[in-house]
Amino acid sequence: MKKRLVCLLAVLLLTGILAACGSDSSNDAESSGDEVVIDFFHRWPNEPRKSFYDQKIEEFEEANPNVTINVDSVLNDSYKEKVRVLVSNDDLPDIFSSWSDTFAENLVSSGRIKALNDLIESDPEWSGKIIESQYEGFTFDDTTYGIPFTVDGKAFFYNKAIFEEVGVDVPETYDEFIEVLDELQAAGYETPLVEGLTNAWAISHYMGTIFHRVVDSETLAQDYNPETAAFTDEGYVRGLEIFQELTTYMGDVSTAIDHEAARNMFSAGEVPILYMQFAEILMVEDAGDVDFGFFNFPEVTDGNGSPDSLTGAPEGWMLSENAPEEAEEFLKFLTSEETAAEFTEVDGQLNAIEGGVTEENANPTSYEAYQIVLDSPETAPWFDNAVDITIADIFMRGGQDLATGQTTPEQIIEEVQSQIAK
Q1: Residue 6 has pLDDT above 50, yes or no
Q2: Each residue of 365-379: pLDDT tens digit?
Q3: Residue range 127-136, pLDDT digits in tens
């Protein structure tokens, strides 16, 4: 009897040790009985989005008393770097925001991102509300790894009153665009086009769009893939020449300010044209009283690329491989029609959820932009997320040097090719 009792105690002790070992999560989401901790990471430490997500966290925790959500947030460039560090250290948060296309694909290649096909198929009432076309940027080899939430587009915002005053029309080709800029300058607007060139990402948005106009899609696909990139097509030099030409209309002020300062100049009616994201509509309206419209980057007549693609891509949410089920429910909550509608009303940005953008919760200008996004025949990804970051950096730094006359398009391409050779 004593021997059997000793054996029983040994089994119970061993079982307890194994249970204790098994209770630890490999991905920071900690469970203790019914208590669950979710680590949540996003890139909006500023208003109004910070308060919006703080409120969503509070609502979810109230509805799920056993869940505690730890939140962290940093701005764009720091966010990109931190996510790369976290994924390389196998230390990703349970749920986090992500750009689509190559940025998402690079994360997926780590093998540490949760596939979401089963989650999507198990709840069609939720997933069926997400605009089908927006899944593409998060789907690789027929597996979806992210849920799209915001949609965006990049266009030239123009001051309607100034255009009417000078007597110029919205250009349909790049040559017509240059004519418009010349006429605006002749009418006294020394800086008809402005940009905050101290923000490298703003330069990348120009370059990505221009390359989509002048380089054929097959070549772009090859060069945007780090394994096959060459950047030998002559269209890249032509694209950089176009960007350099546009900087001559931006004035010295553009090399000394950031994009927010440029936006404030446009909002104040000081400059006629600025290349902006539709996500900035509410910011322009809040900062000034300008009647503005949009036009896409015009067709480049001698270009070999897409004449009318719209630069912009969805952003969304991804889950780490070992995220708990509660993180999946939080993901659904963040991408529900109710959350989406409130998001657009509070933040002003467009979303990828059917019923999430209406004439009731979006102002007429934002609703017009939303239709442009939905009707676009083709989208072009953000360049700094589409190519290898070391290559993007060369183009972005090169763009700053082009604006100040310190380099040439040919020298930038040589540096890119040299980097690829390494």
Answers
A1: no
A2: 999 999 999 888 888
A3: 999 988 889 8
Question: Please, what are the domains in the chain?
Answer: 36-151+314-377 (3.40.190.10), 154-311+388-421 (3.40.190.10)
Q: Give 188 or 28, the one with higher predicted confidence.
A: 188
Confidence of residue 34 (pLDDT cuts 50, 70, 90): confident
Q: Is the dihedral of CA 234, 239, 244, 248 positive or negative?
A: positive
pTM for the model: 0.80
Distance CA 91, CA 252 (A): 44
Residue 30 has pLDDT above 80, yes or no: no
What sign does the dihedral 254-258-263-265 (CA atoms) show? negative
Q: Which residues are within 8 A (CB) of 296 and not within 5 positions of it... i.e. 6 or more apart?
A: 155, 156, 308, 310, 372
The pLDDT of residue 386? 87
Average pLDDT over the chain reads 90
pLDDT computed for residue 204 by the predictor: 95
Q: What is the pLDDT of residue 183?
A: 98
